[in-house]
Amino acid sequence: VIGFGGYVDLINRTSVGGIVAAVTIFAMLTSPVSFLGRMIVFSENSRAAIGRIEEITSPEEEEYVEDGGEALGPGVLSFDHVRFSRGVSTILREITFKASPGEFIGITGRTGAGKTSLVNLITRYYEANSGTITLGGRNIKDISLSALRRSISIVPQEITLLSGTIRENILFGMEASDDRVREAARIASISDFVESLPLKYETPVGERGITLSGGQRQRVAIARAVIRNPKILILDDATSSVDPDTEITIFNNLKEALKGTIILMISLRASALSFADKVLILEEGELREESGGGEEDYVDRL
Ligand SMILES: Nc1ncnc2c1ncn2[C@@H]1O[C@H](COP(=O)(O)OP(=O)(O)OP(=O)(O)O)[C@@H](O)[C@H]1O
Ligand SMILES: [Mg+2]
């Protein structure tokens, strides 16, 4: 009970840090099962808190402005001899590549090759052990985490939808006009489906709403990423449940709508990889090969 009061108080004052702290305190105070129960209460009752998250994460008002007031301009993403290990195992070694604004880069390789780890280094979810990663010529270690993460959208391998409406799931705490929500949905090729529902964007999903298919969930998550107009868009196997034709439509839309964005697409599908300007192939943590898109044999060899 005491924990809950503190929790609500934290939410009301809110910052992402506050929410994280509240969730962490909760995790410590309660058993895992009741923690889950509270999390559902949290997602149902705290829309306002989600609104507050927006103040911190939205690029809307302060176009990629860093805490110091510095703008995080467009620029090349560069990996230079990046090495990453966890414990005794080396997950990535000697990773070197560049990606320019507007480039659509495919990343492929067997399961466990290090694809997700590689993209997690870009958001500094993980820290490289050696080598440097730069964005627009600046070491990402010198960019504030909030500025860095505000400029990157990731569609993860495992999608989580909030218990809420489709609109809320696309906005994910940010504020944007209905037109922008519809436009993001169009780019993600989910607008036709949403508009066929009686409640359209107000349709509840999750616990108390309709159950979306895997491919529909992935497309809602893509719309969520796109509406943030990121400098870097990372798609981690984000269209694996979408049929290949729709997948290509989405890629074409992304390329057209996000002209100055670096798109990094992790995929195992030849049809998706053939869309990329360049494909990076990871084999056991090493970048074996870089090839132009359009070929398919590298997938056959996997
Ligand atoms: N936090 C971690 N601690 C220890 N090992 C990790 C951690 N994260 C990833 N690994 C290991 O690093 C290797 C690469 O994992 P990663 O998730 O990057 O692979 P992946 O290429 O994305 O695979 P998949 O195609 O299955 O998603 C795996 O052997 C994995 O077990
Ligand atoms: Mg992965």
Quick recap:
The protein is α/β, with parallel strands linked by helices and 302 residues long. It has helices at 2-12, 16-29, 32-45, 47-57, 115-122, 145-150, 166-171, 178-187, 191-195, 214-226, 244-257, 270-273, 297-300; strands at 77-86, 89-99, 104-108, 130-135, 138-139, 152-155, 164-165, 204-205, 232-236, 262-266, 278-283, 286-292. Mean pLDDT is 80; it is low at 1-49 and 51-66.
Structure notes:
This protein is α/β, with parallel strands linked by helices. 40% of the residues lie in helices and 22% in strands. Strands 6-9-10-3-11-12 form a six-stranded mixed β-sheet, sandwiched between helices. Strands 2-1-4-5 form a four-stranded antiparallel β-sheet, covered by helices on one side. Strand 4 and strand 5 form a beta hairpin. Residues 115-116, 157, 236 line the site of magnesium ion.
Distance between the termini: 54 Å
Integer count of domains: 2
* CATH topology description of the largest domain: Rossmann fold
Shape: globular
The ligands bound in this entry are: adenosine-5'-triphosphate, magnesium ion
The Cα radius of gyration reads: 20 Å
**Topology pattern, helix = H, strand = E:** HHHHEEEHEEHEEHHHEHEHEHEEH
* Beta strand count: 12
Query: Which class of the largest domain in CATH terms?
Result: Alpha Beta
Tell me the strand order in the biggest sheet: 6-9-10-3-11-12
CATH homologous superfamily placement of the largest domain: P-loop containing nucleotide triphosphate hydrolases
Question: Roughly what is the average pLDDT, rounded to an integer?
Answer: 80
Number of DSSP helices? 13
Task: Assign a percent range to the helix content.
Answer: 25-40%
What CATH architecture of the largest domain would you give?
3-Layer(aba) Sandwich
As a percent range, the share of strand residues is: 15-25%
Task: Catalogue the unreliable spans.
Answer: 1-49, 51-66
Backbone structural class:
alpha/beta
Report on the biggest sheet: 6 strands, mixed
